[in-house]
Amino acid sequence: MSVPLLPPGAPRLGLGLAALGRPGYINLGHGQDLGAEKDVEALRARAWAVLDAAWEAGLRYFDAARSYGRAEEFLGGWLRERGHAAAVGSKWGYTYTANWRTDAETHEVKNHTLATLERQWPETLEVLDRPDVYLIHSATLDTGVLEDEGVLARLAELAAEGVRVGLSTSGPGQAGTLRKALAVRVDGLNPFSVVQATWNLLEPSAGEVLAEAHAAGWGVVVKEAVANGRLTLRGQVPSALADLCQELRATPDAIALAAALAQPWADVVLSGATTVQQLQDNLAALRLTLAASTLDDLAQPPERYWGERAGLAWT
């Protein structure tokens, strides 16, 4: 049995700061949500407002990454200022390069080498303190990170010190990447014990292997449950989802999050809210009870889903 990711009694909904820590992101309508004020202090105030609302609602899992602009800094400062203790996850492997611009040609650069890990772990400690969970950011088979003996040995050291290490996944090969991670061994033991993966009504292909990870005692965190805004009123809501919204008197985002929460292997499902109102809408998911198979017919081929996601604009 694994150590729970959440304190007793906490909702299984968490808050991810991918859209709160930088002025540009790929959620539909992100630029509109931020408005004209996109300087550091304006985004810090916005992030803290959403964090305050999340805390008031009982949320106790918060997710950041080195590449989310100043998300780690915002989260760490908020935790210290408010005196809160919560479960915190972060990630290494991408470097933020947009320099606070929304029109940057490249917003983040991926590098899964030991040198990046050794640089970014101290950077995280400096602004966020020691995270409970530390993940390889968007691990894929092609980077070779799951075969890098130096990286795996260093992550095993962090695991021995009490940090829950693992990986996040993305792309049409999520299942294959996670299966390889489940087989990793360092001195006979697997240092990994957490996975954060994309799962939503349009892209549920990793569900089977996420169930395997859960059964193996891993913590499972779901990201992108609203498909970067495609499963909200800003997207082209599928008719079956629209009908269910009318039946349940709920918004598409709430149903999409509730569908993820209905998966028996999901320990935490992340909201990616950019505003307090979006968070309030997302929180309605906690009041919905859906079957795990709800709206199964919305699933797209993974290659199609990830191809469309790659075409989303940074705003």
UniProtKB/TrEMBL annotation:
- Please give the InterPro entries that the UniProt record associates with this protein: AKR2_Oxidoreductase, NAD(P)_OxRdtase_dom_sf, NADP_OxRdtase_dom
The UniProt entry, under SUPFAM superfamilies, shows:
NAD(P)-linked oxidoreductase
Q: One Pfam annotation, family name?
A: Aldo_ket_red
Domain NADP-dependent oxidoreductase, by residue range, is 45-297
Which protein are we looking at?
Answer: NADP-dependent oxidoreductase domain-containing protein
